[in-house]
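Schema walk-through. Below, the input block comes first and the output block second. Nothing else is stored per chain. Lengths vary across the set, and this one has 203 residues.
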Amino acid sequence: MERVREQFETNVFGLLRMCQLALPAMRRQGWGRIVNVSSMGGRMTFPGGGAYHATKHAVEALSDAMRYEVRGFGVDVVVIEPGLIKTRFGETAAGSIGDADEPADDPYAPFNAAVGATTEGAYEGPLSRLGGGPEKVARAIERAISSRRPRTRYKVTPSAHLILAQRRLLPTERGTPSCAPSFRAPGRPISAEFRPRAAGAAA
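--- output ---
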């Protein structure tokens, strides 16, 4: 829980506090622009990343609400949604999934190892060609600041465009991208007698 709180402190509470500190001056002068950095992960989820995705979903929701709340003061709110960015994020994310203090018989250990390897592989393998460097995010922020009529959202890198388009056009039953079923869920399969019957099946 402490690690979850740290993620929310960094990605949500710190961002929200910065907005609170900047808004009074923007209201007084009658104009301003807030640019919040979210992620494509704020509009979809991958297994193993629930806490991280929750923080980015929160950024999206707070930004959308704030946009309505401050519009009357001449203030815009823009969201930046990076996809795969070539930094040490993949390595950090993969390392944070496991925990050296967890018991050796942790039932989620194989699942966490697979998710960590897949996450790191996305940043280092062929999929990384759909990513970009931090300068792409910087350019998107610059466009959001300098444009006379900015968009509400800026997707950054081909991976963000591709995955979010897939999420919009091909939503899955559980709200995760179509590649998510490639992860083997932790635990044993549910016995057949406990599986829900298909709609219309005889009782």
